[in-house]
Amino acid sequence: SGQIITSSDATTWTTSTSGTTNLLNAVTYASALNLFVAVGVGSLIIVSSNGIIWSTAGSIGYAGEDLSAIAWDGAAFWVTSGNSSRIFKSFDGVNWGLATIQGADNSNRGIASDGVSGGTGKLVIAEYQDDVVYSTSGGASWATVTSGLQQNNFVTYAGTVFLLVGSVNLQVFTSPTGATWTARTTPTSQDMYTAIPYYRDWE
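Above: the chain sequence. Below: its structure as tokens.
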């Protein structure tokens, strides 16, 4: 628990000092701030400028949150809780506040951004079961739809579309904005818990 490993070439890996034994769930990088931010259980948020030496960020104001995912939209970090409907936001990775998200009323499995800051940025929150909360206004307003999955597990952004995977209904769903979702058949019979975007030619 709490282990972070780093590599500059994806071939040789070394263990970094995270300063925690808490389970870590997600990490992201903000190039504009030269800052890595990782989140985990126990309301834990840690930050690093190089991925090697980490320190604890400021308090989110709520104890016992299982912080499940983090996204950077080009101007702010967004963090979801896996055991509540709370969403947290920070502009510097250190000072955090509670974000107001209309329609976010369930525990959250993930969050993704298209990386565009300001009033045209798109954000997608994958809630427990099949609800998706999305914004096409950089988080100024939100709406809720159902994804078509019976259990959302993870959402990411793949260059032109958001990619959603889950359990029970073993398909991949894609959406350009989060408003409507298209099922993509996969050959797997296993639950899917994460995805790494590489191909960027989804239609």
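The chain has a mean pLDDT of 89.
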